[in-house]
Amino acid sequence: MTTHLHVTAWALAFILFIVVVILNKSGKEKGAKIVHMILRLDYLLILFSGGSLLSAYFGGSSMMGEAIFKGLAGIWAVFAMEMIAVKMARHEATKSFWIQLVIAVVITLILGFGRLPL
User: For residue 49, what are the contacts with CB-CB under 8 A and spacing of at least 6?
Assistant: First the structure.
């Protein structure tokens, strides 16, 4: 159940993030700000469900280190998405945060779907 919630929250976050980027690029700051606030609420859902999944590994699992690293990479991805949205609203450079987002998402997906059983 928690896994489905977490994956759904991530999918929703990526959709909302794309909408924020498109609205910022088209100059619709008010709409971008509203969607950005909804995205921030989704971040809380991601953190809650991710923490719940992570706690399942603290029972002496041999993959606890990888689960912690995946959690940190997931937090890094959320941070990069947030910084891109904020910097775009201020019309500042975002290239380094896009690179960080790609790296963090790749690490998270490889560990989440490839290595960790939950």
Answer: 2, 5, 6, 9
